[in-house]
Amino acid sequence: MKFLLTNDDGIDAPGLAALYRAVEGWGERIVVAPLEPQSGCSHRVTTERPFRVLRRAEDWYAVDGSPADCARVGLSRLVPDVDWILSGVNEGGNLGADVYLSGTVAAVREGVLHGTPGVAVSQYRRKGAAIRWEEVTKWARGAMKPLLERKPDAGVFWNVNLPHYPESPARMPEIARCPLDPAPLPLSFREVRELEGEEGLEFEPGCERLACDDIRLAYTGVYHDRRRQPGSDVDVCFGGRIAVTELRLF
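Given the sequence above, the corresponding structure tokens read:
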């Protein structure tokens, strides 16, 4: 098989290296990944300006654009005969509503739009805890293997989320097929007088809280405190299992 590998954390991200190792021996690997981190960019594409495609090494290309751009460039110019698009391993979960924000998932979705199947892989991370990338490589390999044994129906792709353990478990976590959690992310903001890079910024005299056109808000929602529907991908991953979710374009 021939694989196009990409991500949204950038071409130098450790998760991309983990994904590259995870599919070793399964076929040809061509990396087409963003030059810089693009986390949270969703399905943005670059159409208003030219962008660079840089050859970093043999079969490694850096694109000055989004993950969806990478999929487009790969499929149209670099590897039009690719069998699968694999995206990740994202540093952080892409669970539930995250799939609409995620550049990792968008790269796979772009490929599926053009008839190429794919798998997005993400590593959920508990706040303040390190990720063991060698472990991620093994888990990603184990989770992807059964998915790659046959191509899914048209318009279908896979979203995989690996759980995060404080300490290395004795064996690979159980893999669970599960639906996407429909709950929204927490909505919580605080008002701030100053933003990073805007030292000394103050509200205009006479402005009431939330009553003028120039306010500053910082998101304070806690990812791990999001609602969980029992049996959904959020519940499965947070509970210590590998969540494998089938997604459809329409």
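The radius of gyration is 19 Å. Try to locate this feature in the token string yourself.
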